[in-house]
Amino acid sequence: QLRLVESGGGLVQPGGSLRLSCTASEYPLNYYAITWFRQAPGKERERVSCISSDGSTWPEDSVEGRFTLARDNAKNTIDLQMNSLKPEDTGVYYCTAGLGCGLAYDYWGQGIQVTVSS
């Protein structure tokens, strides 16, 4: 069973930056596509960005140019670098793992809170 753990969330002012990390202790993540989702209070969960096993990334329009995904296979982590944060980026962020971007999301982390507020 692949267990994903997110880290790096917190409170940041608008315009600031945060880096979220997704890691697994039992299995290497380099064979999985990793997709980040978020859910704001009172809203449906939405996809943020995906990185495939070959390193290709697929960000949503709402975060393109501000959020980047990268793999660190030595650390077995996938990092979501979030810049120019806006209040509407607030929510619980989840990392998921699957066989490919846009395919089934087989494994989910527990989620981590990101709050963008002054």
Q: How is this structure best described in words?
A:
With 118 residues, the protein is an all-beta fold. The protein is 0% helix and 47% strand. The chain is built from no helices and eleven strands. It has strands at 5-7, 10-12, 18-23, 33-39, 46-51, 57-59, 67-72, 77-82, 91-98, 107-108, 112-116. The termini are far apart. The model has no long low-confidence stretch (mean pLDDT 95).
**Helix and strand string, N-terminal first?**
EEEEEEEEEEE
General shape = globular
Low-confidence stretches are: none
Percentage of residues assigned to helices: under 10%
Main pleated sheet: 7 strands, mixed
DSSP summary, beta strand count: 11
Strand content: over 45%
Rounded average pLDDT: 95
Gap between N and C termini: 40 Å
Query: Cα-atom Rg, whole angstroms?
Result: 13 Å
How would you classify the helix and strand content by structural class? mainly beta
Summarize the structure.
The protein is mainly beta.
Outline the fold blueprint.
Layout: E1 5-7, E2 10-12, E3 18-23, E4 33-39, E5 46-51, E6 57-59, E7 67-72, E8 77-82, E9 91-98, E10 107-108, E11 112-116
Parallel strand pairs: 2-11
Antiparallel strand pairs: 1-3, 3-8, 4-5, 4-9, 5-6, 7-8, 9-10, 9-11
Give the tags.
118 residues, 7-stranded mixed beta sheet, 4-stranded antiparallel beta sheet, 47% strand
